[in-house]
Structures are given as structure tokens and as C-alpha cells.
Amino acid sequence: xxxxxxxxxxxxxxxxxxxxxxxxGLMIGGMNAITAPIIQxxxxxxxxxxxxxxxxxxxxxxKLDLIDGVPSTVSGAVEGKNASGAVVGYIxxxxxxxxxxSISLVISVSAEGQILGASILAIDQTKxxxxxxxxxxxxxxxxxxxxxPQGDLISGVTNSLNTVRALLNDxxxxxxxxxxxPSDPYVASFGxxxxxxxxxxxxxTLNITNKKIAKNPANxxxxxxxxxxxxxxYEGHDGLVTDKGxxxxxxxxxxxxxxxxxxxxxxxxxxxxxxxxxxxxxxxxIGKNPTDFASMMQDPGDITAGVTYTKTLVDVLLNALxxxxx
Length: 326
Description:
Strand content: 25-35%
Mean pLDDT: 85
Low-confidence stretches: none
Order of helices and strands: HHEEEEEHHHEEEEEHHH
Radius of gyration: 30 Å
Oligomer: single chain
């Protein structure tokens, strides 16, 4: 064999190189078999950390299939649930390019379409990285549909900001296709594509917890939403029950005519079977102005028969609203 290789050095070198390649291939394959699961686990841990950063309530995350129509910039979507198994939001990963480099975002969105959290997963830009992070954070709290910043934007990073806006728009498309989105009761009052933003001039009181400004897609004010809450007494089956609350949402147009009133069932702690009467009483204010409230509270007719105590609490909230808007 030795003399054969001596007489045929080319075959000798080829054989040696082949054996070396086989050994190296086996070593690389073995190392890959060892490291691949570790790399995958690290990626999953990084991904989960990003999920929990933008959706802290989430305990379990289920990946959703990216169906036809989801923009190509959206590379991942998951449904987040809390410890009780209730859906607390959806998380989307999206990436885009501009002349300065690439940006990858992780955005959490409620079922109703509100941006709950936002983070930059990766960014390869030549400048303005911190400013881009700050600008992204201003979109938290706005609707993913026609997302508008909730604060002042930092100038000087226009290209990055445009990329962020484009990615948020693509995420809105994905959210509409993938999420189990409940119908939006505010659309009937404010129209498709409306957005809500907190009124910076509003100061919360005991009974009025928040005020939001509604704007149309042209960024024109089309109304306001006031969030009311209070605690009172009601007549239970076994007598008076104290310290039980309810909440209301009152929608006005830009001229402060009532467009709609909601009494959320999940925040109604008075007698459930009588809630329909309170809802009817609240809805009787639709189409009215604050100047009409006093006479309507004084003479509601038979609509509140049997719910005197709860009606009194509703009137407390409405009077607090009058003090706020007058």
C-alpha cells in the first residue's frame, strides 16, 4: 500500500484530504448537534423575554399562523394569555428597511386594537437609535389603526420614524386578520378609523377617572369620551347592600351632545337582573346636551322603577360629569 501511494502521490493526497474532510464533517456535525438546541433555546428565551417586556400580563404565548394577506414585513404573531387562561393581548414582530439600515419591532396590541407595549428587538441604524426608541414609545396607548403618538416626537430621525409608522400600519393589517377582535361600539359614534388620545388638560376626580379625545383619520376632533365610576348602595334580595360600584362611559360629539352611553357589564356590581333598567336610563340621555341633564334626572318617568338606589348613584356620576364639562 505504501509503495502504491508512493507511486501515485496525487491519489495519496486526495485520500488524505478526503479523510480529513470526513473527520471535520463529523466533528462539525457533532458540534452542531450539541449547539443547535442551545442556540434555539437561547432564541426562544430572548423571544419570550421580548414578549413579556411588551405584555407583562402574559404568562403563556401561542404562535399564530400567518395567513394570506398578512404583510411580508410581519414575521411573527402570538396570542398572549394570563395565568387564568384569558387573552390579554396579541404580540407582533415586524421588520423594515430604510436608507440607514434595518429595524425590528415587537408590538403588543389588545383585542380591541390599543397598543399596549412596544420595543425595538433589533436596530441597525447609523444614527438616532435612542431617539427612535423614544419616538416608538409615544405610540403606546394609541389605536393600532391609524396609530398616532401620545406625546411629542423627537425630530431628526425622519426616515426611522417613517419606517416605524409603516411597520405599525402593517401590524394593524395583521391584527385585523389574525386577532379575535370584538366589534368596536365606538365606531357608530366616531366613525371608522377614529383614534382616541388622553386629554392632557384633564385632571382625574373621585368619579371622573379619565377623558379621551376622539379624532377622525384627518386628525380632526370629533368628540370626547368620559369615564365615570362610583360606589353606592342598592336594594338586594336580602336588604340593602352597600359599597358596590358601577362604571359608565359617556360619548359626546365635538359640541357636547351625547352620542352614546355605556354601562359595562363587567364593572356593574349592583343587581344584575336590574341592569337593563339602568342601561335604559343611561341611554335616555342620548341626543341630549348637559343643559338637559338636570330635568331628566328629576323626572325620568317609570324607567327607573325598582332601581331607586342605583339610579341615585348614576345621578351622582352624571352630576360629577356636569361639574366637569360646565
